[in-house]
Model the fold of this input.
Amino acid sequence: MSRLRPVMPPDASLAKVFKAYDVRGVVPDDLDEEKVRAIGEAFGEFVAASGAREVLVGRDMRESGVPLSAAFADGVLAAGLGVVDAGLISTDMLYFGSGALGLPGAMLTASHNPARYNGIKLCLPGAQPVGQETGLARIQHRAEELLASPRPTQPRERSRRGAAPGVSTTDLLAEFARHVHGFVDVGSLRPLRIVADTANGMGGLVAPKVLGTLPFELEVLYGELDGSFPNHPADPIQPENLVDLQRRVLETGADVGLAFDGDADRVFLVDDTAVPLSGSLTTAIVAAAILDEHPGETVLYNLICSKAVPEVIAEHGGVGVRTRVGHSFIKAVMAETGAVFGGEHSGHYYFRDNYRADSGIIAALVVLSVLSKAGVPLSVLREPFERYAASGEINTEVHDIAGVLAAVERHFAPSGAAIDHLDGLTVDAGEWWFNLRPSNTEPLLRLNLEAADQGSCTRHTAEVLELVASLDGSGARTDEEGEGRGT
Done:
């Protein structure tokens, strides 16, 4: 028996959950099955217009992912397309599957966010990104139209085996592991001792399959898939979430620690002395390794990365290209330039031979390969790549973001510092530089500052924060969040 969809006003019903690069919100307050079904149908219509006939759908380990992924699939079917259900996968597996199978894809995940959240990351065939300017706004508008139009819907009938008409299944894990292995010379790997903290996220599925079959001694912390995150949040950019990994690295004498986020597309590393590597440092190490194999290639880095990154790129014969923050922008520039690799301060690492998509496990394996060949501990290997002191990302609540940015620029303009607006405001005074950029979703300005030494970094960070506070007059809260947020 059919039922009517409830009428929802189209004006702002999905505005809260549609972000710059994905869909994300609290379940069920912001995001429920009805909304996800409408988003699935809108996405299905969007990709069908370009000739797609199927959509690859995967989900992470969150409990809400089961009904929400089914609802998304219902929407795709309502749009007249088939569904290829990949089941429990990491986000980088979804991108790999989109590239290998030539299908548009949807990953049900909220990445590093707490258990009550869920969301959707979308891509076109070949893992091409979908952002606000490349289709996400259109998908939002169409989904709101669908929610506002009461139409009869027929519940999906399931076969005896549990599959719905128009739904097939695929298992990507083994093929993905072989794909990741192809980024290094497996024969050169040595028996490193590795601890991987997967935080009950999808890394618990992926890391053993990719790394456990190689000549490593692998220990996995919190490898059980549990979307309630019973041990600690799956957000490795926060120092407090690395404590267990750091302790275990020291207890076992491990060569390296790996910390994955909830959907396992990002990774942060800890060296043999339990000191974390920043995203910029990992970008520099991976860039050097890739350029040694592919001299003269282009490598991307976002404008928050340390100045050490373009220096290393040039030293290893590469062409560095500075980009905005965010995967949609980086993937677009990779396509335009043919870049072999790109890195972000937030732990996202992009590879041309991975359909220009990001993958934490590929980046980790490249570093493990470098470490295998170097014959020195990671604590020593890292030293030539660390050249400056950084503030980390500091968020400040402000009332008038545009006004503050303009006033900060006027303040520094007479100094002769180089100023640009590639992403927010960047002021480069030579011996030190900073970037202030607005959050996409909150009334925040994000400050990243780098200087020649820690004393100078601390002094200039205080200077810029005091300036922002005085210009806004809000006396607002300031939070330090490590080296940037990732998605």
Notes: The CA atoms of residues 72 and 249 lie 41 Å apart.
